UniProtKB/TrEMBL annotation:
PANTHER family: PYRUVATE DEHYDROGENASE E1 COMPONENT BETA SUBUNIT (PTHR43257), PYRUVATE DEHYDROGENASE E1 COMPONENT SUBUNIT BETA (PTHR43257:SF2)
Organism: Haloarcula quadrata
InterPro entries associated with the record: THDP-binding, Transketo_C/PFOR_II, Transketolase-like_Pyr-bd, Transketolase_C
Keyword Oxidoreductase: yes
Protein name: Pyruvate dehydrogenase E1 component beta subunit
SUPFAM superfamilies found in the cross-reference section: Thiamin diphosphate-binding fold (THDP-binding) (SSF52518), TK C-terminal domain-like (SSF52922)
Cofactor: thiamine diphosphate
Superkingdom of source: Archaea
Lineage: Archaea, Methanobacteriati, Methanobacteriota, Stenosarchaea group, Halobacteria
GO molecular function: oxidoreductase activity
Positions of the Transketolase-like pyrimidine-binding domain: 16-191
Amino acid sequence: MSSTASAQTGQKAQSLTLVEAIQDGLYTEMSQDDSVVVLGEDVGKNGGVFRATDQLYEEFGEDRVIDTPLAEAGIIGASIGLAQTGMKPVPEMQFMGFMYPAFDQIVSHAARLRSRSQGQYSVPMVIRAPYGGGIRAPEHHSESKEAFFVHEPGLKVVSPSTPYDAKGLLAASIRDPDPVIFLEPKLIYRAFREDVPTKPYQVSLNEAAIRREGSDISVYTWGAMTRPALIAAENLSQSHGIDVEVIDLRTLSPLDIETITDSFKKTGRAAIVHEAPKTGGLGAEIATTIQEEALVHQEAPIKRIAGFDAPMPLHSLEDYYLPQAVRIQDGIRETVDF
């Protein structure tokens, strides 16, 4: 349901940024389910480095909003244990680049416990992590390594691009019986506002969103790259008459293969936009899926418009590294003109 639809149904809504929608989503789920707990570095009294947990400590107390040591492996290991005792932990990794010490706990235990126990146990846990570049942060603060976790069976991977989706996807993730990696595009934490219902609601974890309908080419993206993709689509419509369809995946694992392939069957051309390095990125998986499911509809090579195969550079070079609207437009034109 879009924010417009929510207004039409008479739901009360408030205008929120994406990070405010995250905070509201946490508050809403914690209010109606005492088993939901938040833990991480500075999430309590300080309200989180981006203030995503602001006021939760004051409302729910230190037993449910837990400040932890700077020990990512310990945070995730403790969360796995909490999940086994009937709790629904929502640990925060301050930045995606800080997740590497916790990687063993995530892939060796959280992702495998259901399989290891033959379904006897699961890990209802949501690992929140701000990710991506563009905010002039130091090293390790701008990673976009979603492909690491998409590759791991047993994990769901989610990345919202709007405030409405952020709250709804977070609610669905917290209520899911299995571990979810919830990646928050910090570049757009406060970039714009949107009406978000005050009441609880969910956005499905396996449905992509068609942000713009078109007939000439399908553009697949997620997170912070959705906005420049939409800008590129509008620019090309006005300047070259190219009708671009923009698909916001929202959930990266599992992929909404039906929406992906239906769009491609309509347009016959595709471009995939992500800020992660190109090699081994999720774009390759999407391109392969399209060729497996809809090859006979293909009119041109599938274009990947991505970050470069290099560490995220510092400061002003970020603007060159990240796919901006102009680079996206060039990639779309190259595909359409093939």
